[in-house]
Amino acid sequence: MTTTLSTVSVSRSLLAIGVLLASLTLCPDAQARRGKNDAPDIDRSAPVVRNTVDELRQLMDGQQLTELRTTYNGTYGASLLFNASTLQYYVSLFQGKEFWRVIKTDSVETAENVYETFVKQTRDLAQVNIDTIRLEAGKRYTESLVAYNEQRLRSLQQEADLQRQQAQQVSSAIQQAKQQAVSLSTDLRSSNTQLEQLNQRIQALQAQQGNPELSLPTPAHPTASTAHPVAGEAGTP
């Protein structure tokens, strides 16, 4: 009986040791899982700063920067910004609303030098756009002048054609008038001749009617045979 109890006690001891070892083996994983579950959640809504451009945008959105200088050349610009809470300067080169480069420094001299460099780059970059704007404006202006002069040329051509037609009509009318004048001149000379002849006849008739002496026809003189009958003719002895 004693032997049986000892065997049972040993078995129980071995079982307890096994359970303890198993618990020790599983404990690290459980503790790790418990550590993961107990770890505080990370605020995923917090902004993640990846580079200086993103940092500048976040500071600008939070209105944490003071604009010290800004220069525009065309669509390009350079800005010098200051963060009063950290005493840091941000120098940016941008086009429109897109940042190309951003340099952060806590040196005033470096910030000013970088700003002047960016300003010069904006002048160089904008020169092409400025030249393009001027050339496009000059092109549009020249095209408008060409269109205006073409319209003016068409108007002048139409006016010249109208004047030429009018000149031809006037010339034709003058030629007809000259021909009519020549015909009328001929008719006038003929009428004057006829009038002169009529005046002469009228004057002759008036002169004849105004002569008080009656003009009689001259009698015919008798012939010799009639005045002296020949001997032996009838009535002669």
From TrEMBL:
<feature type="signal peptide">
    <location>
        <begin position="1"/>
        <end position="32"/>
    </location>
</feature>
<keyword id="KW-0175">Coiled coil</keyword>
<dbReference type="InterPro" id="IPR021350">
    <property type="entry name" value="DUF2968"/>
</dbReference>
<feature type="coiled-coil region">
    <location>
        <begin position="153"/>
        <end position="208"/>
    </location>
</feature>
<keyword id="KW-0732">Signal</keyword>
<dbReference type="Pfam" id="PF11180">
    <property type="entry name" value="DUF2968"/>
</dbReference>
<protein>
    <submittedName>
        <fullName>DUF2968 domain-containing protein</fullName>
    </submittedName>
</protein>
<feature type="region of interest" description="Disordered">
    <location>
        <begin position="211"/>
        <end position="237"/>
    </location>
</feature>
